[in-house]
Write a structure and sequence with these properties.
127 residues, mainly alpha, two-stranded antiparallel ribbon
């Protein structure tokens, strides 16, 4: 159940990001197309963050320390661009137009995901 809550949270955060950040968009024609795309892109984003982010943190530990964590913003933007590239290769109508759209999109995603997680706790948080 926790997985579905996290997936829905990420999909909602992606949707809010498409509303706020110019250059991050889903171009589905119908609501069902858009919702499906957001769920699949949220799944892709979650897998990328679960697999690559820990590896990047270990490898780039020095950069995180030297920049006092600001390097994490660049890493998040690059992971957001990677999500766009994978979604494009799967012919999903999700587009991120450039680094700065990815940069701000990743920040908005993080903030919205955190806000939703405060309101709707994950089942793992209850233990």
């Amino acid at each position: 159940m926790g997985f579905l809550i996290r997936l829905a949270t990420t999909a909602i955060a992606l949707w809010v990001t498409t509303l706020i950040v110019p250059g991050v968009e889903v171009t589905g024609r119908r609501f069902s197309d858009t919702a499906f795309t957001l769920l699949i892109v949220a799944l892709i984003f979650g897998v990328i963050n679960a697999v690559l982010k820990p590896v990047i943190k270990v490898v780039g530990c020095v950069f995180y320390l030297v920049t006092l964590g600001l390097f994490a913003l660049v890493v998040n933007a690059l992971l957001f661009l990677l999500t766009d590239w994978i979604a494009g290769s799967l012919d999903l109508p999700f587009h991120v137009r450039g680094f700065w759209a990815a940069f701000w999109g990743a920040i908005v995603m993080a903030v919205v995901t955190w806000l939703i997680s405060v309101v709707v706790p994950d089942s793992m948080d209850r233990r």
